[in-house]
Amino acid sequence: MTTVVRAERLTKDFLTGFWRPRPHRALDALSFDIPAGGVFGLLGPNGAGKSTTLKLIIDLLRPTSGRAEVLGRPAGDVDARRRLGFLPEHPTFYDHLTAEELLQYFAGLCGLVGPDLRARVARMLDLVGIDDARRRPLRQYSKGMVQRVGLAQALINDPELVILDEPMSGLDPLGRREVREIILRLRDEGRTVLFSSHILSDAEQLCSRVGILAKGKLVASGSVNELTAGGSPGWEIVVSGLSADAATRIGQKAKRVTRITEGRYTLELAHTRPEPVIADLAAAGAAIVSVLPLRTTLEDVFVRATGAEQV
After folding, report:
1. 111 phi and psi angles, rounded to 5 deg
2. Considering the entire predicted model, what is its pTM?
3. Cα 65 to Cα 265: distance, rounded to the nearest angstrom
4. Predicted local confidence at residue 105, as pLDDT
5. By the 8 A CB rule, do 280 and 248 touch?
6. What is residue 1's predicted lDDT score, i.e. its pLDDT?
7. Interval 62-102: pLDDT, tens
8. Could you give the CA distance from residue 156 to residue 117 in angstroms, rounded to a whole number?
């Protein structure tokens, strides 16, 4: 399978401090490959090195050591740049221009002219949901609307590789869903999408593969299915009409008991069958609301890999 992005021991140090600058290691010997097609998520808490990694890949930053390849060429190669699109985390545009004018400018930089340029601009604005506002100056746009224009800019050159830094930033739930649909559409068209995020639910819905960063190091990587495999770790039982005394007594068989409202509880069972506990609950007069198997989620993997559960 063709490798679209390759990082080989990427390391980046920044000098910090005024009087006696000292190197701060933002990225430490990061290595990974991204195959063609599909969606790769670069995950990690704030400050983990996600944005630094993306900037090294597209040559906005130069590594202290190590190297990156994009579409089979060294990072920064002009031919490779023509075939990729990029959305930074905090896009800043000429706010006196309209969205239509801005995209016409970027389309012209990509070599489009005449009817092809105008058709491409209109199609991209339709794709990201900018309708009547496309002829308004960007200074009148909300943060979420600017983010949509930024996504259209990243796609204006019909790229093979799309790199998105926190693409859901500033979007409301409807906007996030629309961006997820766009990313899946790009995947179905055979493009490769690399995006960074700390929103794990979005990553779990979108990604075929992920890499998890913590303090500049890659602490886990692989397909989502591989990382979350391992069977059901337990069960979640929601009941109503359970007395506090019964909840305390029966709760001794559970890993965790959470009071939702008066008489309504959630019991989390770990590595045990739910039937004996359900029988005890029924005998105590409780009504069973739901019984659901628990599975390992990407959030569970993230917490274990980054050591967040120890914080």
Report:
1. 95, 5
2. 0.81
3. 54
4. 94
5. no
6. 67
7. 999 999 999 999 998 999 999 999 999 888 899 899 999 99
8. 9
